[in-house]
Write a structure and sequence with these properties.
5-stranded parallel sheet, binds manganese (II) ion, single chain, 2 domains, 6-stranded mixed sheet, globular, binds adenosine monophosphate, inorganic pyrophosphatase (n-terminal core), 330 residues, Diaminopimelate Epimerase, Chain A, domain 1
Amino acid sequence: MNILQECETAKRIGISGHVRPDGDCVGACLALWQYLRKCLPDAEVKVFLEKPADIFRELAGYEEIDSTFPEEDVFDVYFALDCASDRLGGAEKYFQTARKKINIDHHISNNGCGDLNHIKPMVGSTCELIYDLIDKEQLDSKLAMAIYIGMIHDTGVFQYSNTTPETLQKAAHLISFGFDFPRLIEETFYQKTYIQTQIMGRALLESIRFMDGRCIVSVIDRKTMDFYQVDSKDLDGIVNQLRNIKGVDCAIFMYETGVLEYKVSMRSNEKIDVSKVASYFGGGGHMRAAGCTMKGTFHDCVNNLSLHIEGQFATQDTVQIVQEGSGKEC
Ligand code: AMP
Ligand code: MN
Ligand code: MN
């Protein structure tokens, strides 16, 4: 796909990403916004996105983000980044009515919702896809910083298995533009406020292990969120911390989003494909990081998730027994 060719005659271009935007989503939207503004100065380029966390305020274009989703508006080209159209929230109406819809994403659960689709599940972040698609001559420090932020957030600072030699080569090129990357990593990825740390502590303390310690779950209810005065953005990272526990193959973190409704986040290792589990319940994601929204009591939700996780363990155990058995015969 050649982004500039696709936008050649466009006068109005819109860009959006998923609800509850993470670093990859914010980085990709603002990187594409900067790139299009630079290369197509006569076009109007707008970003519609739920208000991102304050930690992303240094990214160029942050102040330009429109989180009010005003009345319907027609765009010549509309980009859905880091998700399919069903997760665009208030921006879905712009995407659906656009003359040309373009979907750029790396979620394995996304079948493509645009007239043009660039979906690469093997690539670690949508920002890495943006890097691949742009003319590198146009890179500058601000554009490089926006792309880099998405790469670090979705690869866990180049730790997760979605980091490839190419990812690191691209990151090396990006930091050559001279932005303060150690501070960016520290302030947007690792640093937590006191309250965020307290609620994480609470979630860890009250977590429950099951399936012989191979799974762990923790839940934060609305009352607790109100007590600590936190919102969903303050709960980032809890599920990763649960996944870090020795012996855990699958971690589940849930928080209450409404009456008998929970946002579910799952993380796993190579033993469980959480994207399959989340997709079954109407969500999606990647093999090792996925999410969905579920209805019911906390116990109903955990029981339903467990059935699917246990099913995957059982299949693997059977495969292992068969392999061991055939080994003996040899
Ligand atoms: P989370 O647990 O919300 O941090 O999400 C983990 C991964 O799954 C991210 O890449 C999300 O974009 C993706 N994801 C979360 N919820 C959904 C959903 N309902 N549908 C599709 N993908 C999702
Ligand atoms: Mn994302
Ligand atoms: Mn992503």
